[in-house]
Design brief:
Number of strands: 17
Distance between the termini: 51 Å
CATH topology: tRNA-splicing ligase RtcB
Oligomer: single chain
Radius of gyration: 20 Å
Number of helices: 11
CATH superfamily: tRNA-splicing ligase RtcB
Structural class: alpha+beta
CATH class: Alpha Beta
Low-confidence stretches: none
Strand content: 25-35%
Shape: globular
Length: 368
Amino acid sequence: MSKAKVEIIASSSSWIEQTAVDQLHQNAQLEGIERVVGLPDLHAGRGIAVGAAFWSRTHVYPHLVGNDIGCGMGLWQTDQALRRFKPDAAEKRLTGLEAEWDGDFRAALSDAGLPVTLTGEALGSIGGGNHFAELLCVDAVEDQPQFESAGLDGEHVYLMVHSGSRGLGNTILMRHLDSQAVQPLMAGSDRCAAYLKDHDQAVRWAVLNRKVIAARFFERLGISGTQHLDICHNSVTPHEGGWLHRKGAAPADKGVIVVPGSRGDLTYIVRPRLEAADRSLFSLAHGAGRKWSRSEARAKLDRRFTIADLQRTKLGSRVICEDRELIYEEAPQAYKAISQVIDDLQQAGLVDVIATLRPLITYKMRRE
C-alpha cells in the first residue's frame, strides 16, 4: 500500500502500462513522500516512473530527479522566413555538431555564474537517448490572441532543443549514491545543502547547454533567433514549504510551455491553467511518453522498416540520425500519440492550447 496520496491524471482513453503504475506506487512508499502525481505521459523508467511529480515536506531524494538533472527544452523563433527555408540545404549544413564546441566555454560558464572547471568540454553537445534539436514551423494556431501575446508568428522557422546536463548530472547522482545509496536527504541538513548546490549548478549548466546548442545550429545555418522559453523537467525545487521532485514533468508555474510529441508528430504550445495546477502538483506532461521500451522498439521495427524509411516521417519531415540502434529506439511508433496526452490535460482543466508546431528537420546524431 502506498503511504502517499497518489493520483494519475489520465482519461480512460489513455493507455498506461501497469509497470509504470506499479513503479509510481512503489515510489509513493518512500519515507516522507506525501503526494504523488502521474501525468498522461507516464511510463516506466529504471525503477522510477517517468512523467511524475513527488512532494515531500521533509525529504529530498536525488534518485527521484535522476542522472540528467536540468534536462528540459528551449524554444527559439528564428529570423529564417519559412517561405525561403530550403530543407535540402539546411540538412547538408547541419554537420560537425558532434565535435567539441570551438567557443570559449570558460567565458560562457563564467557569464552563467558557474565554475569555469565545470565540464566545459561537453558544452554544446546534444547527447543520445531521446535528446534532439528540431527545426519546426507553425502548423495551426488555436488561440490567436494568446499566440500574439506570446510574441509568436507563423511566418518563421522555429528551433526546439531538448537536452540536459550530460555527464555532469550523472556525476552528481553517482557521488550521492556512493555515499548515501537511495536513502533520503533530510531537508536542512549539510548533505542536503551540498546536493542542492550541485543540483542547482547542473540545472544552470543544462540551460546554458541548450543555448550553446542553439547558437551552434544558428551558426551552421547562417541565421539567428530569439529565445521564447526554457523549461526544466528533471529537478527538485522548493514548493509550499516542502520539496517538489519532477521526473519527466514540465512546470505549470513558469508560463507558456512546449509539449512535444515524437519526431513524427506535432509539438503543442500550451498555457498552464494555474487555478487547477495544485491538482497536478503544478506539473504537466513533458512529452508523449514511451509506448515501447528501447529493446522492444528495435525488435518490433528492425524487420519492418529500413533506415531510409525512418529518415522520413508521416508529416514529411526529415530525421538526421546516423546511429542505427538509436533511430529504431526513438522511432515515432515507440511513443504514444501526443494528441491524447494533450486531450487528457485539457479534460483535467490543466492547459489551454495556443498552437501546434510541425517538425521540418529533427537532428539527433551525425557521424563525423
